[in-house]
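Appendix B, example 12.
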Amino acid sequence: MTDPFGSPEPAGSPATLDRSRVDALRRRTIVLLSVAQVFSGLAAGSVVSIGSLLAVEITGNDAFAGSVTTAATLGAAFSALWLARLALARGRRASLSSGLLLASVGAVAFVLASVWQSFPLLLAGGALMGVGSAVNLQARFAATDLSTPGSRARDLSLVVWMSTVGAVTGPNLVGLGGPLGRLTGLPELGAAFLFSLAGMLAAMLVLWIGLRPDPLAVAREGEHGHSVVTGVRTRVPITEALATLARFPRAVGALLGILVAHAVMVAVMSMTPVHMAGHGASISLVGLTVSLHIAGMYALSPVMGWLSDRIGAPVVLVLGLLTQVAAVAVAGTSGASAGATTIGLVLLGVGWSAATVAGSSSIAGAVPGDGRVAIQGLSDSLMSFAGAGGGALAGVVLARIGYDGLNLAAGVLAAAGAVAAFLVQRRAATRDAPVV
């Protein structure tokens, strides 16, 4: 398959195995990953909406509103390569299940932080919950282990899409925190994280019990012609991963677009609850806005996957970044209007969806063999670092130049990212030399 940018795409499918067996396992894997995404998605919105409010409650300072998001994204960043190494050594089942177990510990830390009003414990919980975010990101790549080039973006997007149910529900669980808190004796914000704990544990059990045989092991068996489940090299230095990435310019362009889209999304999203609360919005309205934003991130994922397979992932990636430019223009001029803010946040999520699905599909298709898993881990690690940077700077920018200034800065970054991603991927289509 050749996309509109002219980049050839390797097949990357286990051709030596019986295709009917592989297709059946591929469908089963997607179902299992999708069910796990529903459960683990409960925590995603909770960290953003409830975590930021809990940080302000404990510290008494709005400038720390983005600290939990920053801790979570740093946790995801530092764990992504570890999860990739574990996948190479023990398969996707062990990697994804281990990450979800650590995230469950993080949910417990959030509950205890609310009880003890401990900011360090809150940050530790955020970092561990970030490991769960890294699992959710790598689940989309796990969905492509047994895919063909013509179905890769669709398979990936279906797993991303199934995050919608849990992720949209998560922010609204704050409303149940009060009744659950009275029942358990826990603070309202802390009690809401009991739902996150239950979701993480349920997702872990689904993957640990159901993900047999391991899709990555089957895919590698098809590529190598023999079983390579264990006993492989587990250390993948980041310098080596970067060197591998440099040999595939199409993946470089895709990664660049993903990083910008994620930084913009995290920066604006993490500060929106504080902006709305400052204009008198209720906690329920804040939760609804974040829910609709997350729906924008995930609900249209199958459409983005279909478009990526049909018109080319590089085109969809650039369109996603341009959608984010429009989104921050709406949000940045919303003022006290909760409706306009919500529209901007929904568009922000849609742009993120297009860029992430298209960019991830390009990375999965551009890099062959075991190097693909290492690059996927590197991609998720850098993506999380970009989000951490966006979340860390967002609070400072909000305090200095306001919500409108934050959105203006985010719009400039998204526009520059769209141009850069287009030029790099265009270069990849016309030159065989690697981008360095």
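The chain has 17 helices and no strands. The longest helix spans residues 371-430.
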